[in-house]
Amino acid sequence: MPTSSGKALKLIVTGGAGYVGSVCAARLLEAGHEVVVVDDLSTGHADAVPEGARLVEGDAADATAATLRKGAFDGVLHFAAKSLVGESMQDPGKYWRGNVFTAIRLLDAMREHGAPRLVFSSTAATYGEPEKSPIPETAPTRPTNTYGATKLAIDHAITSYANAHGLAAVSLRYFNVAGAYGRYGERHATETHLIPIVLQVATGDRAQVQIYGDDYPTEDRTAIRDYIHVTDLADAHLLALGRAKPGEHLIYNLGNGTGFSVRQVIETCREVTGHAIPAVVAPRRAGDPAILVAASDKAREELGWKPERADLHGIVTDAWRFTRELTARQP
Questions:
Q1: Which of 19, 127, 147, 227 is catalytic?
Q2: What CA–CA distance (Å, rounded) separates 20 from 122?
Q3: Does the N-terminal peptide bond of residue 143 adopt cis geometry, omega within 30 degrees of 0?
């Protein structure tokens, strides 16, 4: 899928050895763009870098600056970040330095070397506990954790750079990314996402899955979340490249338009895997809202984006295929 401009671009993808970044890099290459992946491989995997992309190993800001010095690029897609909510509360300095300070240095490098476009991987954690759901881009931004606060700070910085220096920028805020694309999928050393955690029970790597709270005001009493297929998410980044305009910082929420409860996710995983997947109820986690669903009307109208893989069964099927293939490759 090309960008809406139709022009082949020369691009840097920071964090392109990670989950979302690798899928986006693969889709960019398929669309005919030239891709350089910048990744320090602290959480990414060298074998996740798509064939056809060049890997530059190093800090997202420093390695990007060094790459920009060697030749002109049409833009940067910035995925590299620290992203564990719990860790962000225990070690906030790591997140302010690793996310915000790195992003400022990246913005300065882009300005110095004339890279005109930025697509930033933001998050719905910038909204905190919303007043209503689905959540529009106009919702108040009141992050309840350090991770979300750092991403919001970067969004503010991007706005300043766009206004002052003519940067063409788009931030994409999304919730729960899931599924897989070909050989690219989710594999974290510390897993915090529901679908891969449930699938780890099916593979025998966990004994059971915990349901944090069964007293929510929802149909089955468990929390509801928005899940978006990683390929749909990557395609939104390609469209954002074509929508970016000098001096503007656009922000879009991305969601599939439908929320799924924790029990629905577990039951779908049981259907797809054929495993019983024991589940036990645990106390609610502090600050967990009952429903978190993104309103993505603006992205649909302005980017021409539409999630094509919004079916939960399909999302889990893709994730399960990748999980089994990954398990088979391990010694």
A1: 147
A2: 12
A3: no
